[in-house]
Amino acid sequence: MLFVLRQTVNKHYNVRAAPDSRGATKETSVEIKEVIEEIRTKPAVPLWPHAGMALGVCRAAIYAAAARNELEVIRIDRSIRVVSASLCKRLGIERAA
Predict the structure, then answer these.
(1) Which DSSP helix (H) or strand (E) runs through 2?
(2) How far apart are CA 14 and CA 79, in angstroms?
(3) Where are the domains of the chain?
(4) Which of 21, 41, 46, 52 has its C-alpha lying 20 to 30 A from 27's C-alpha?
């Protein structure tokens, strides 16, 4: 998995947000470096795009993995977050001190 991360270090991902009250969507560009840094420093990160991008899977696949309890997740209302410690272990990266 680390090989895939090294290949994609400088790639940008366009992530489309859910429509707002007016029905408009906005795209934001997310860099994999920023995602990995957040995984290393925060206690939990969003399931999508953070965990999905880090693992190199699409949105549907990461939500399906969460539904099958393949990831250690925290569910708060409609929000699903992945525990960063378990994600770091799976990716083979060290947590920030």
Answers:
(1) helix 2-7
(2) 20
(3) 2-91
(4) 41
